[in-house]
Amino acid sequence: MRIQAKLKLLRHDRGYNQEDVARLTGISIPAYSKIETGITDLNYSRIEQLAALYELTPVQLLDPEYDPLQKNDALLLKILQEQLAKKEQQVSEMQNKMIALFEQLNANVIKKTA
User: Fold this and answer.
1) Residues in domain HTH cro/C1-type (predicted)?
2) How does pLDDT run across 48-76, given as a tens digit for each residue?
3) Domain end (from 52, 68, 84)
4) Co-location of 112 and 80 in the same domain
5) What's the confidence (pLDDT) of residue 70?
6) Which of 69, 86, 87, 94 is most buried, most CB within 10 Å of its CB?
7) CB burial class (10 A; 0-12, 13-18, 19+) of residue 13?
8) Which band of pLDDT confidence, cut at 50, 70 and 90, is reported for residue 87?
């Protein structure tokens, strides 16, 4: 994987946009965009900076065979499980509200017919 593709993949994985990465690295958005699109070549200090941002070594960032997301599978699974648990909680709360509304509606119908 080319470094540009790896940077984009890492950025998306962390939920960053180009503006976020530019701000975190202290460069302009257009300058970062040129790095990610391959227009600008990276110098070693910028490689170190980006590697540190993504908690990688410069070698890992430069290695075309290294998949930076492979090591994050367990973390990704944990995040997805947490998100699923939240959604299940929301569904449960909505079901309870629907039941309460149905019971209230049913009680109102009984009052009107009595």
Assistant:
1) 7-61
2) 999 999 999 999 999 988 887 776 666 66
3) 68
4) yes
5) 74
6) 69
7) middle
8) very high
**Core vs surface per residue 25-48: b (16+ CB within 10 A) or e:** bebeeeebbebbeeebebeeebbe
Nearest-angstrom CA–CA distance, 49 and 26: 10
Q: For residue 62, how many other CB atoms are within 10 A of its CB?
A: 15
Using pLDDT thresholds of 50, 70 and 90, give the confidence band for residue 35.
very high
Say whether both 62 and 108 belong to one domain: no
CA dihedral 63, 65, 67, 71 (to 10 degrees): -90
Can you tell me the distance from the alpha carbon of 76 to that of 78, in angstroms, rounded to the nearest whole number?
5
- Domain total for the chain? 2
What sign does the CA torsion over 67, 48, 44, 26 have?
positive
> Are 21 and 62 in the same domain?
yes
> Is there a single domain that holds both residue 108 and residue 61?
no
102 phi and psi, to 5 degrees? -65, -45
